[in-house]
Amino acid sequence: TGYAESGRMTAVIGAGRVGKATFLGALAGEENQTKGNIYYNGHEASALVRRRATGYCWFGGEQTVWHGTTTVHEALVLSASLRQDSETSDSRKLEAVQSWLELLGLTELAEQPLELCSAVETRLVAIGVELAFSPSVLLVDEPTTGLDETGAKRIVRLLQQVAYTGRTVVCTLGDSVSSTDLRAFDRLLLL
User: Fold this and answer.
1) Is residue 119 a contact partner of residue 87, using CB atoms and an 8 Å limit?
2) Homologous superfamily (CATH) for 9-190
3) Tens-digit pLDDT profile for residues 117-133
4) 78: which of 4, 52, 107, 129 lies 20 to 30 Å off by Cα?
């Protein structure tokens, strides 16, 4: 049993191959759960409800579905256009995209093609693409794995900023997680 709160960051830790990614996938409604119940705001949530309320980023293997010449701004705009409620005006969607670009430190890279982004920038764009549709929960699988210490700290710091917007942020962390990374989280869940 565990829980995550809005406005807070929760780290899911455990040995390799223990099922951290599967756990996040179940929370996101992407994996079939075999036992137990998942609640959002105190109500049991179906897989469909979880998919609609959750942004889900994973960084294992190739996942990019964007063409290399797509710009950072275009990637976020497309996500907002396709995934936000159809009743939300285009101007509101663009405002949301702009605010996420600013919060994630991507404003100066807005017109840069994705193929020219660094590893850290690519992860921030992926997070921005999920945030562009305004989910209440952000799930991120191993956001710091494979990054140098500076890049890892930048990702964790910006995920904290996302949590401060009132969203629930849940991240799995790999075996190489540092104590500095762990201290940034409000809650730890051990699998």
Assistant:
1) no
2) P-loop containing nucleotide triphosphate hydrolases (3.40.50.300)
3) 999 999 999 999 999 99
4) 4
